Amino acid sequence: EAGVVQSPRYKIIEKKQPVAFWCNPISGHNTLYWYLQNLGQGPELLIRYENEEAVDDSQLPKDRFSAERLKGVDSTLKIQPAELGDSAVYLCASSSERGPTTMNTGELFFGEGSRLTVL
Amino acid sequence: QKEVEQNSGPLSVPEGAIASLNCTYSDRVSQSFFWYRQYSGKSPELIMSIYSNGDKEDGRFTAQLNKASQYVSLLIRDSQPSDSATYLCAGFYGQNFVFGPGTRLSVLP
Predict the structure, then answer these.
(1) Closest chain A residue to B36 measured between Cα atoms?
(2) Interval B62-86: pLDDT, tens
(3) Is the minimum CB–CB distance between B96 and chain A shorter than 8 Å?
(4) Hey, are the CB atoms on B49 and A41 less than 8 Å from each other?
């Protein structure tokens, strides 16, 4: 079974340029997450989807970040314009489980990440 | 206070020793906890979950949860160089997972 696929793996851009990241979750996983991970830090949630609905985007900086999940499968995260502080790894994760319950295994399947460098 | 806190390390232990990784959490974090392992340059992977007070063992790994003290730990027995990685503690905050900053473990041969 294929895992979570992300692209591109690496992206170097100049500040003020746009950038987009793509994620294909594991087949059948309805829940999709985008996380941001800075060096030496844990992943921080940007947005969570249940199917095509963004159920939590409270941490997404909406002035420059946008995301979509058309048809409840693939997802795209966009930054426009990029700033120096956006340099980080952008992780996509998927799960077959909805929200936290006592029976939730807590297993998120992460992609390899997209490393962004803004110059 | 951050929702989930960990000592960033690095924690260095000799091969064969017990590595003890610790995590504390705020009372806003619900009491199901997860340990993820992240090798350098790779993505996190789940290695243990614990939902109730006490110990949970899986092979060389033991997770411990103490709700009264708001404390979660991961013990790795017979540590191997291949265990060298960053270990992330995670819990539920609202409807989402929240991760600690991770503890970097180095197992010395």
Answers:
(1) A107
(2) 999 998 899 999 999 999 999 999 9
(3) yes
(4) no
